[in-house]
């Protein structure tokens, strides 16, 4: 159990996919305009990463080395299709908001990278811990980026149709730059600098 949580914690802090490994920038830039999108994308990544890691780990000894990447992609695509259909059926508004970036989880370098670097070489328990840690790390990074972008870019915060609050000054004069792609880069840079200053992320 101790090894399980140790492996899981690596994906949250030590190997955070966005802040440390600099992976998954496309969804981080594209869908982090609202907290709703950040939560939705994180749920999709968790489902696909957990499912694909488990299957890849289970079949790792029977997959020939020369075809492992195509096999991994087929497995990932299967889980992406499932989550895509579920979102389309039960949360259509979120499905429309995420757009093409939900099915593009198939080629997300985080998913394929963990399948290749970890799940294909380790047993199921460790692969589950790895998937959970990386997914939580992805969610934490995406959530804070989206939270700051939505607050600064709109002056208010809403969660799945429920208006939570409006800031006094920004509500009337929002800094719309932060809703645009340059705003995402700026927020990511500021958060990364803050984490490094706090010692959460170590300098190389």
Write the layout of secondary structure elements.
Blueprint: H1 2-14, H2 25-30, H3 35-59, H4 68-90, H5 92-98, H6 109-117, H7 124-154, E1 156-159, E2 162-166, H8 181-198
Word description of this protein:
The protein is mainly alpha-helical and 204 residues long. The protein has a domain at 2-139. It has helices spanning 2-14, 25-30, 35-59, 68-90, 92-98, 109-117, 124-154, 181-198; strands at residues 156-159, 162-166. It has a two-stranded antiparallel ribbon with strand order 1-2. α1 (2-14) packs parallel to α7 and α3 packs antiparallel against α7. The chain is globular. The chain starts with a helix and ends in a 6-residue tail after the last helix. 37% of the residues are buried. The mean pLDDT is 87.
What kind of sheet is the major sheet?
A: 2 strands, antiparallel
Strand content: under 5%
Query: Helix-strand pattern, N to C?
Result: HHHHHHHEEH
Residue-averaged pLDDT, rounded? 87
Helix percent band: 55-70%
Q: How many helix segments?
A: 8
**Widest sheet: strand ordering:** 1-2
Q: Please identify the oligomeric state.
A: single chain
Question: What are the low-pLDDT stretches, counting only 5+ consecutive residues below 50?
Answer: none
Give the N-terminus to C-terminus distance in angstroms.
30 Å
> Which structural class is indicated by helix and strand composition?
mainly alpha
CA-based shape: globular
SS elements, strand count:
2
